[in-house]
Amino acid sequence: MRFGIYPGGRAADVCSRPADPAAIDRLVGELAGGHAFVVREYVHFFGDEQAPELIASLGAADDLTRLTMPDDWYARDGRELDLVVSYLPRVADVPGWLTFLDTVVDRYGHLTRHLQVTLEPNFPVPLIDGSSPGVLDALVLGVPHARAALDRRGLHDVPVGFSVAEPAEWLGGDDAFWAHLSTVPHADFAAHVDYVGLGLYPDAFAPVAPRGTPGDAASLAAHALDHLRGHSLPRAGIPPEVPLRVVENGSPSGPPRDERAQRDSLTDMIDAVLDRREALNVTHYELFSLRDADSGSPEPTGTLGLVTDTYRPKPAFAAYRDLVHRHSSPVPSVRG
């Protein structure tokens, strides 16, 4: 199993203070402990009719200049850059999107070890790609386009995938999304998908059952994986040989819960993922996130971090570090 994390301190438009590169380097190094470790980052496409206030709120003005850390940081010490290219235009602009994918590959391809095309296109809420006009075409055309862009640059070993949000019931139904994919010829889309990611936040935005009972965070995480593999992916013609990845998983520590409850929830959910890794071909787990976006915020998105917004470790930090060290390969991967 490969483990990883988003190292920044932003959740959508919530961010209380700038990132501290020295603290990030120290904490990510402690989590990785000499193992290969995935680092997740995000860049955004806004189209020609850009909204300056939206770009500023997402901290996306410098996406193509730099990520959270300097370029060379992502290529050292067994780190693997997992780069998400998010589609957020006000009006549909698939030609512009495909050109943007080329630009992203030109800028970051030499660093990228995993490329995700769109962010949760089945999830129609603000600031997530599923709310954007033309997102289905952006996904279906974007995946093979990104594959071709990487191949032209000799980056044949960079897998290309997409992510979806946790299961249909929680979303109020995503049947239309999978129904659309079921109509796309296999050679045009599914044949180009190297992995499918799952965004997993079962206890972040709605109450769940008490720990250890049916309907708790662990059982909901297990259900999300089972439902995606057993029900949704077959509709899109994506076979069991295509790996699943948990590309985002988080649990807040803010009221009415506390930091210990966050630790317990995360460890229970990770255990549920590990229990299914062989049966469901789950190969990666990435946590969202290293740092709180705003430790004083009443919103769940503010307190998803393993450390506070001043980089004080919470109990979940040590718990995740120990899980990574116990279940990862000790040999860093090497491209090629």
TrEMBL record:
It comes from the Bacteria. InterPro entries: GH. Residues 235-263 are annotated as: Disordered. This is Uncharacterized protein. It comes from Saccharothrix australiensis.
